[in-house]
Amino acid sequence: MPGPATVFFRNLIITINREWTMSRYFEFIGGTSAKFWEISTSGSEVTIRFGRIGSAGQTQTKEFPDTAAATRHVEKLIAEKTAKGYRETVVR
Asked: What's the distance, CA 37 to chain centroid?
């Protein structure tokens, strides 16, 4: 992950904190269920959006001490969802 970038402009020094963002989208369709689950990260922040397909769903955000902890959490949740039958797909 890139660190902060420093830009020099005339007599100003500007530091830009660049963070990678990632988003993955999953769906579960079976029986009478038609649900989606989306997870995204920005630095050490993890956001989950879930609900019935076609709705805006609910959103939950959690902050972690660092990006490594956030990444471990994301990998764990994705493994749990795929074990339950969720399949990764493109956002509808």
From this structure: 10
Q: Does the pLDDT at position 7 exceed 50?
A: no
| Gap between the Cα atoms of 74 and 3, Å rounded | 21
Give the CA count within 13 Å in the CB-facing half-sphere of 24: 14
pTM: 0.77
Instruction: Please measure the distance between the N-terminal and C-terminal CA atoms of the chain and give it in whole angstroms.
Output: 29
Which residues pair with residue 87 across a beta bridge? 27
Q: Which domains does the chain have, with CATH numbers?
A: 20-88 (2.20.140.10)
Checking if the pLDDT of 4 tops 50, the result is: yes
